[in-house]
Write a structure and sequence with these properties.
The complex is a heterodimer of chains A (276) and B (335). Chain A has helices at 84-91, 114-119, 137-144, 153-162, 164-167, 179-191, 209-224, 236-242, 260-265, 267-273; strands at 37-38, 46-53, 61-68, 73-77, 97-104, 107-108, 122-125, 197-201, 228-232, 245-250, 253-258. Chain A has 276 residues and is of the alpha/beta class. Chain A has a 6-stranded mixed sheet with strand order 7-8-9-4-10-11, with helices on both faces. In chain A, strands 1-6-5-2-3 form a 5-stranded antiparallel sheet, with helices on one face. In chain A, helix 7 links the parallel strand 8 and strand 9 (228-232). In chain A, helix 3 (137-144) runs parallel beside helix 6. The termini of chain A are far apart. Chain B is mostly helical and 335 residues long. In chain B, helix 11 packs parallel to helix 14 and helix 12 crosses helix 14 (310-324). Chain B has a two-stranded antiparallel ribbon with strand order 1-2. The chains are: A alpha/beta (276), B mainly alpha (335). Chains A and B meet through helix 2 and helix 3 of A and helix 3, helix 4, helix 7 and helix 8 of B.
Chain lengths: 276, 335
């Protein structure tokens, strides 16, 4: 951004013999965490309240609030550009918030950086670039378990039982897998930390309908094991069918908040967001 | 035709020197490739890190010699090496703290980091000259030869001699051991895998709870250790001269790019390819031709390029590789 040289068309940054832009991050990894504050007692398991902020000067989130209770599946739907993914990133600390607080399990974790939120019990599966392509499936899962000091073989077996298709490919590089399998590895990687809250950003983007149904089945299975799930979905109808609570986000604010079934039954929601 | 003498001459004048030089380049290129793969820029200060590290090792060697410490037939510099690495790593980590971290924090374009490393290069260059001067320094002690020419001639009865110097043997052993250790570290250990993960996808590494600053520190320390080893071995094998280390940056980068930037295997292979080409092209083959074809009397020395132009070899290989196979032999990350 700083000195985008119009005369040279940003040539230096495209010369791969001196720079390596592949896999470059978007989050400031040097940021240190602040202290965890005690939260207000009555708050749900995850309570992200009145979030305001964006990437630059213009805000994308205008005071949206997302809460998830223990073992619940929460789904965020909404039109393109509503700030769904941004809200997820904000909850994970990958975005500088101007206002708002994030509480997890009774603690205010607003000052934590993403690395420490992982340690606090959150897991995140980004929409794209969600595996380590040059590493094997097994190594991807091992990296998921990076913060764990105990024996994580049992968790790995659980992941392989959940996703038998990738279990056969454990020695294969994750970058060589099909879209659906890659998505399974990505979810598996996040499960390896044994998170209390799993956040999925469009887990079914770019996978076939059959794989999509299967992924949704797996997500229900994960939620039944006691993990709270917060998910952004393009396939709003299917997602709301499995949702305990649904959020319709428009322009960075909550438009509708209700149970999944109630939102599906709401004629206005159906007409505006679910295509009739 | 005198094949035995020809083979001995090739071994003595081409294979052994090129293998030792190749190991030194490989160690240097490994550092360059690690920094490129993980910190995502070509570190132009690598050559001067080598020079500074070697200067530290030399000073420590002198101190040890003054105290009367010696390793017998093995150069004292090997004993000073770990301490030299520690001192240089401290300086490099300080540089990261003062220079590079700022650019990571503001998420500067990668080319900005490259230019920052050029600045660091000049500072380190000056620092080295300030500390140890610009003169040529020889600091190898201990036994000079494992096999000397006389010994070999007496043993084999051949007209052609063969020498194998202690420093060459040490270079090969140290390079082999450190490559083995590095590959094991990257492929087997949790920290090594975390470094590969960070190289693959920075954000996802963060989301796995990997502390990026720790990965950055480890990368600097490992790259510095490799650089100081390469520099010390080069200095023991030839001699130390601050300016030579600035020049050696070109063959090192050529090696890393020929192998494929970001690929450690490629860096090792590239080091040997560059070294063997450089030695083979600048070696006068007349003597060997004389053994093989006694009737042929060539006019010249059969030397393709005079040794002053040896850097041209790296340049040509570099350009050819960038033109025809920019990802390098081992499919690194470039292009």
């Amino acid at each position: 951004m700083s000195d985008t040289d119009h005369g040279f068309g940003n040539r230096g940054n495209r010369d791969a013999s001196v720079v390596n832009p592949k896999g470059r991050g978007t989050v400031d990894g040097t940021r240190r965490s602040g202290a965890v504050q005690p939260g207000s007692g009555a708050a749900p398991f995850l309570a992200a309240t009145a979030l305001r902020g964006g990437y630059g000067k213009a805000d994308i989130l205008h005071g949206c609030t997302i809460t998830v209770d223990r073992g619940q599946i929460a789904v965020i739907v909404g039109p393109n550009g509503a700030g769904k993914s941004t809200a997820m990133k904000a909850i994970f600390g990958m975005l500088d918030l101007r206002e708002g607080a994030v509480q997890l399990d009774g603690n205010d974790i607003s000052a934590l950086n993403p690395q420490d939120r992982v340690r606090a019990g959150m897991g995140f599966v980004p929409q794209v670039a969600n595996v380590f392509p040059s590493m094997t499936v097994e190594e991807n899962l091992q990296m998921g378990a990076y913060i764990r000091e105990d024996d994580f073989r049992q968790t790995m077996d659980q992941v392989y039982t959940l996703f038998p298709a990738v279990a056969q490919k454990r020695k294969q590089a994750a970058g060589e897998l099909s879209g659906g399998q890659r998505q399974q590895v990505a979810v598996g990687r996040a499960l390896m930390t044994q998170p209390k809250l799993l956040m999925l950003d469009e887990p079914t983007a770019g996978v076939s309908p059959i794989v999509m149904d299967e992924l949704f089945d797996r997500i229900i299975e994960i939620a039944r094991s006691g993990i709270s799930i917060l998910m952004v979905e393009q396939n709003a109808r299917q997602a709301l069918e499995i949702a305990d609570i649904g959020y319709v986000l428009v322009q960075g604010t909550n438009r509708y908040t209700d149970t999944g079934a109630a939102l599906l039954a709401n004629p206005e929601v159906r007409r505006t967001f679910l295509g009739g | 035709m005198d094949i035995a003498n020809a083979l001995v001459a090739i071994l003595n004048f081409v294979v052994i020197p090129a293998a030792a030089y190749g190991s030194q380049l490989a160690l240097g290129a490994l550092g360059v490739t690690l920094i490129y793969g993980i910190l995502r820029f070509s570190n132009f200060a690598h050559g001067d890190t080598m020079a500074f590290g070697t200067a530290m090792v030399i000073l420590l060697t002198w101190a040890l010699q003054a105290m009367g410490v010696s390793l017998g037939p093995i150069p004292t510099a090997l004993l000073a090496l770990p301490f030299g690495i520690a001192l240089t790593a401290a300086l490099v980590l300080m540089t990261d703290r003062w220079v590079y971290r700022h650019y990571r924090r503001v998420r500067a374009d990668p080319i900005v980091l490259v230019m920052a490393s050029v600045g660091v290069m000049f500072v380190m260059n000056g620092l080295t000259r300030l500390v140890i001067g610009v003169e040529e320094i020889r600091f190898d002690d201990g036994a000079r030869f494992i096999i000397s020419v006389q010994q070999f001639k007496a043993w084999s009865g051949l007209a052609e001699g063969l020498s194998f110097r202690t420093t060459q043997a040490i270079t090969l052993i140290v390079a082999a051991l450190s490559c083995w250790a590095l590959f094991r570290f990257l492929n087997r250990t949790r920290s090594g895998k975390a470094m590969r993960a960070y190289s693959d996808n920075e954000d996802l590494a963060l989301l796995s709870g990997i502390d990026p600053e720790r990965v950055v520190r480890m990368t600097w320390i490992i790259a510095t250790a490799l650089a100081v080893m390469a520099g010390t071995l080069y200095g023991l094998d030839k001699s130390f001269k601050a300016f030579n280390y600035f020049q050696i940056l070109l063959p090192i980068f050529a090696a890393a790019i020929v192998g494929g930037l970001g690929s450690p295997t490629g860096a090792v292979a590239g080091g040997f390819i560059i070294a063997f080409s450089e030695v083979a092209v600048t070696y006068p083959w007349k003597k060997i031709a004389g053994y093989l074809f006694p009737t042929w009397q060539p006019d010249g020395l059969l030397q393709l390029l005079s040794t002053e132009y040896k850097f041209a070899v790296s340049f040509v290989i570099l350009i050819v590789v960038l033109l025809f196979r920019p990802t390098g032999l081992f499919r690194g990350k470039s292009v």
